[in-house]
Design brief:
heterodimer, A: alpha/beta, Rossmann fold, 4-stranded antiparallel beta sheet, 15 helices, B: 2 domains, two-stranded antiparallel sheet
Chain lengths: 576, 355
């Protein structure tokens, strides 16, 4: 039995998971049109490699990864590319982004594909390449390219592989149902992960105690594999990467570090299934399990949904009642975001479409004043003081916000959930983070501009000073000469020595700096060289025309050459 | 299909500010019952008068500020302030004492600072202290507890109590008297044992002082209910009670003639339990973090003892709480919790110092 640790804070919202677990994972008719966003992940958007009008087969590459931190996209079914343009995507802002639209031909015919059965004798590099080429991202949350995560580099050896089967958000049962029905394939995926990571010492599947059936389904498959199932009490948000690492290992991920820095890799359990399909079956990631739930849909269950399926297609096949629906949420009720329209497609990170009734999730009540009751601080899983962050966010006091570790907020929503005054705390934090980032960028920009300006000013000042110094030196020399003349005048005549001294002083002033001398010499050399060339040309002309001035020109050439050599030797002396 | 856009989290717990305030009101019932049982109807009348005044003041100010009156009255915060002040005032105090105190609490201490959530000081305690400084005679006239009433007399009934409150007629001697803390403070030439033997306030009591110990037990019970409902954490009350116990143990002096009194007397006399569970737990004016609240409570415990033992006032919860309110931002600066993934705690003003 593995020991577990208890995170601070957390909340226990009603789970509402049983509604969608009455049936097995279903499938839906193929929609007429599928919309595949080119960015479904963290990193660079994929680059489309098909053209409008082109026919593609199921599983065919339609967009290539753009760089290391990126993923390719594949056609979820066979059909014709009918558009490559900006479409509304699953984003809280309702923004448009580049997408590829496929009009299905209904045949759903696969491209030729082949997996490898003998992954144990395949090099980790080759396996990583398969994972990368299959377009696999983390399917639980942010959507980080899995191949990047699984390749932490030699200087960071991995001794712990954590499989996140927590699924702590209410309503969502995508992982739960996948484990119940596909435990064997999932464990197969975990074994492949283990091979890629060089067989880490610990392989832990973290799962909450509200999924006894899933645990029972996994049990027979992990026996004598070295994989441990670690069960811990249900509490939101135990499924956050940082929280799960602490629960399973008692270690905290230091601020600004990655799990790999602690020798850990954390992978969502849905992703392990996709990895198994990619490696063993040769199938890219083109579908995923998504929960369709909430009282505003008639059937609440899990579906194996093609990536790119419009949410409207899911709703239409589940007797969606818009009259009863208070909002449509992609994700769960704690961290999911409400969709602006149902035309948005399902993407690789879409674990749930929640269509709650007004009774389930009523309209938000107006916010009351914060009384600093501290219930939010009791609920915070990372030990922040949400009430203070709220006050400083209102005051836009960025220094205080950073001193109160605003950027350690994981936006889990536990504080807003418990707030008796209905204050949308997380929204304040998101907006404050945005403001601070923007202020930071602006500061960098203005710092650059200031540095440039100051350098420019300094350069002009220096030039000015040099000129002034020269002027002063000349003035002083003139003064000395004058006073020398004056002294001599008073003593009744100038001596030769005095005149020489004055001349030397003038010469010294003129030669104030070796740079000046060098510059002068260089100018002389350049001019002399020009003259020499000219003279040689004239000499050549004279020779050609057999002129009587040949001797004159040759003397001039000789003369100029000597002068040039003199100057060059002077310059060489000076350089020494 | 277009849908309503709402920010996450979408789910909310059923808790709301009004429910929290209602629970606080409910939790004062054991204390109120003890007060009424031991000292007659006076506290009951105080609460009624204070509540009517508070709600009227709050409504008037909200109207002046152009805010929704019903929305702000529904949070019950004005009623909580009124009830706490009503419980703290001496039973059968003249009506204008209650009204002046409540008006000051709501209008000056709360609304002039910006209303609920913005007041730096505990409004009920501001009202109390204003009254104590301005009207010391009315504020230090306490009713004799039940056990000490002369044989054959009872506390005035409800009608008679109302007459006393509204006529300004002072109750006869024998019905009013000193409090245990008062008595102990002014018996300086005697050993503690002698005071306990001589004074009926003590020799008629089990723990600390006739009548008062019941009131304190009542508030302790109410406080424990709130604690079990997680309305506040244990840090503030435990900080105060532990500091008070520690101070009274250190200076107990074996009950000599200069002893300021036993830990039991300090814990179960005066406003100790009400202060610990209903006054310093006001989140608005207290320190913020759990550690901060522990320090905040301990500071109040020490101040209560210092003023009781060596100050001019027999009890000191109101003064101690207000002084600690002053210190709360300072305490907050040094008591931030350690955030996940950070080695050390930070200070609230860390960034400002650097720049």
């Amino acid at each position: 039995m593995n020991r577990t640790w208890v995170t601070p804070g957390g909340v226990h919202p009603p789970e509402n998971k049983h509604q969608s677990m009455t049936q097995q994972i279903g499938s839906l008719p193929i929609p007429d049109k599928l919309v595949i966003p080119l960015s479904q992940h963290i990193g660079a958007a994929a680059a489309a490699c098909v053209e409008v009008g082109q026919h593609v087969l199921k599983g065919q590459l339609i967009a290539e990864a753009a760089g290391v931190v990126s993923i390719p996209m594949h056609a979820p079914t066979s059909g014709t590319i009918s558009a490559i343009e900006h479409r509304p995507i699953a984003h809280a802002s309702g923004m448009l982004a580049p997408c590829i639209e496929i009009t299905s031909d209904g045949a759903d015919s696969w491209i030729e594909h082949q997996g490898i059965s003998d992954y144990e004798h395949t090099s980790p590099e080759k396996l990583l390449e398969i994972v990368a080429n299959a377009g696999i991202t983390g399917m639980g949350g942010a959507g980080f390219p899995s191949a990047v995560k699984l390749n932490p580099g030699r200087q960071r050896p991995i001794d712990t592989l954590i499989i996140n089967a927590t699924e702590c958000e209410p309503y969502i049962t995508a992982d739960d149902s996948a484990i119940r029905e596909r435990a064997g394939e999932i464990v197969g995926g975990i074994k492949i992960l283990s091979a890629i990571l060089g067989h880490p010492h610990n392989i832990l599947i973290g799962i909450e105690d509200n999924k006894p059936e899933a645990i029972a389904a996994l049990q027979p498959h992990v026996e004598s594999t070295g994989i441990s199932i670690v069960v811990f009490p249900t509490k939101y948000p135990s499924g956050g990467e940082k929280q799960l690492i602490y629960i399973l290992t008692g270690k905290e991920l230091p601020a600004g570090k990655l799990p790999a820095d602690l020798g850990m890799v954390c992978i969502n359990i849905g992703t392990t299934y996709a990895i198994k399909r990619a490696v063993i079956d040769g199938e890219p990631l083109i579908s995923r399990v998504t929960t369709v739930t909430g009282e505003a849909v008639g059937t609440q269950r899990n579906y194996d949904v093609l990536i790119g399926t419009p949410v409207s297609h899911l709703l239409a096949h589940n007797q969606f009642d818009q009259e009863r629906c208070s909002r449509v949420i992609m994700g769960g009720p704690m961290m999911g975001f409400s969709l602006p329209s149902a035309e948005v497609p399902v993407v690789k990170t879409t674990n749930c479409i929640l269509a709650p009734s007004y009774a389930e999730i009523p309209e938000d009540e107006p916010a009351q004043p914060c009384i600093r009751c501290g219930m939010c601080a009791e609920a915070c899983p990372v030990s922040l003081l949400p009430q203070q962050l709220f006050w400083y966010a209102q005051a836009q006091d960025h220094d205080r916000l950073e001193a109160h570790n605003l950027f350690d907020c994981i936006e889990c929503g536990a504080c807003s959930y418990v707030c008796p005054s209905n204050i949308p705390l997380v929204q304040y934090y998101r907006s404050a983070k945005g403001e601070i980032r923007q202020a930071h960028d602006e500061k960098i920009r203005s710092d650059h501009a200031r540095e440039r300006f100051e350098f420019h000013k300094a350069r002009i000042e220096q030039a000015e000073q040099e000129k002034e110094a020269k002027r002063a030196a000349r003035r002083e020399a003139a003064q000395q000469a004058k006073s020398a003349t004056a002294t001599n005048g008073s003593s009744g005549g100038s001596s030769a020595a005095d005149i020489i001294a004055a001349a030397q002083a003038r010469a010294a002033a003129k030669q104030a700096s070796p740079e000046d001398q060098r510059a002068k010499l260089e100018r002389t050399i350049a001019a002399t060289e020009q003259r020499l060339q000219l003279a040689e040309e004239k000499l050549a002309e004279a020779v050609a025309s057999n002129s009587d001035k040949q001797s004159v020109f040759s003397a001039a050439v000789e003369n100029t050459r000597q002068k040039l050599e003199q100057s060059k030797s002077k310059l060489a002396e000076l350089a020494e | 299909m277009a849908f309503k856009q709402v920010t996450s989290p979408h789910a909310h717990s059923a808790q709301n500010t009004a429910k929290v305030m209602q629970l606080v009101l409910l939790a004062t019932v054991p204390g109120l019952i003890a007060l009424t049982w031991q000292f007659g109807w006076g506290s009951f009348i105080n609460i009624a008068l204070a509540s009517v005044t508070a709600v009227s003041c709050e409504a008037a100010i909200m109207r002046m500020r152009g805010r929704s009156v019903s929305f702000y009255l529904r949070d019950y915060s004005a009623v909580v302030t009124a009830v706490l002040l009503g419980l703290a005032l001496p039973p059968l105090a003249p009506w204008w004492i209650v009204v002046v105190g409540t008006v000051f609490s709501i209008v000056v201490a709360k609304q002039l600072y910006g209303g609920l959530g913005y007041n730096p000081f505990n409004p009920a305690m501001i009202g109390y202290v204003v009254l104590l400084i301005s009207f010391p005679i009315q504020m230090t006239t306490w009713i004799t507890p039940l056990a000490l009433l002369p044989l054959g007399t009872v506390h005035p009934g409800l009608i008679e109590s109302l007459q006393i409150v509204f006529s300004g007629y002072t109750p006869a001697d024998g019905v009013t008297g000193a409090t245990p803390l008062d008595t102990f403070k002014h018996s300086s030439g005697l050993l503690a044992d002698q005071i306990y033997a001589r004074e009926p306030l003590f020799n008629q009591a089990m723990l600390a002082g006739a009548g008062w110990e019941w009131v304190n037990l009542g508030f302790l019970l109410g406080g424990l209910i709130l604690l079990s409902q997680r309305i506040f954490t244990w840090h503030g009350p435990v900080g105060m009670l532990a500091a008070l116990t520690l101070m009274s143990l250190i200076f107990w002096d074996g009950g000599s003639s200069s002893s300021p009194g036993s830990p039991l007397m300090h814990l179960f006399s005066g406003a100790t339990m009400m202060g610990a569970f209903f006054i310093l737990t006001d989140p608005v004016s207290s320190a913020v973090s759990n550690r901060g609240r522990l320090v905040f409570g301990a500071l109040i415990g020490v101040l209560v003892y210092v003023i009781r033992a060596w100050g001019n006032y027999p009890d000191a919860v109101a003064f101690a709480v207000l002084l600690a309110n002053f210190a709360a931002p300072f305490i907050d600066n040094y008591t931030l919790p350690r955030t996940y993934g950070h080695v050390d705690r930070r200070r609230a003003t860390e960034k400002e110092d650097q720049s």
